[in-house]
Amino acid sequence: MNRTTKLKELLYRNSREGRKSLALLVDPEKTKGQQAWQELADRCVDFPLDYFFVGGSLVNPEDFLTSIRELKRISQNRIPVVLFPGSVMQVSREADAILFLSLISGRNSEWLIGQQVLAAPTLAESDLEILSTGYMLVNGERSTSVEYISQTIPLPRDKPDLAVATALAGKFLGMSLFYLDAGSGAQLPVPEQMIRAVRTAVGSPLIVGGGIDSVFRAKQAWDAGADLVVIGNGAEKNPGLIAEVYQFLQCYNASLNVN
Question: For every residue of 65-110, which 3-state class applies, written as one string?
Answer without folding.
Answer: HHHHHHHHHHHCCCCCEEECCCCCCCCCCCCCEEEEEEECCCCCHH
